[in-house]
Design goal:
Helix content: 25-40%
Number of strands: 0
Shape: flat
Order of helices and strands: HHH
Largest sheet: none
Length: 89
């Protein structure tokens, strides 16, 4: 009597690749990169920026950046895409 539930070599390859991908995906740790051993532990000197220089810098939390910019072009017509019915757009 032979078993029909036996894995083929390609099945074993898929299992090994999946397990190795999951194992390697968990490697490392979250956070900034470690400094090299020769680097000093002193924090870099921060320069005092004026408010105008700070406002000129782009950033996520800088709500005043670009407020003095010129007019923006209007949106163009929407072009259809194959997946629009699936995405609900």
């Amino acid at each position: 009597m032979t078993s029909k539930n036996r894995l083929t070599p390609s099945g074993w390859a898929m299992i090994v690749l999946s397990v190795s991908a999951l194992a390697l995906g968990g490697c490392g740790r979250k956070g900034p990169l470690d400094l090299p051993p020769t680097a000093s532990n002193a924090p870099p000197q921060a320069t005092a920026d004026t408010e105008t220089a700070q406002a000129a810098k782009p950033g996520v939390f800088n709500s005043t950046y670009g407020s003095e910019s010129g007019p923006v072009a209007s949106k163009g017509s929407k072009k259809s895409f194959v997946l629009d019915p699936l995405l609900g757009n």
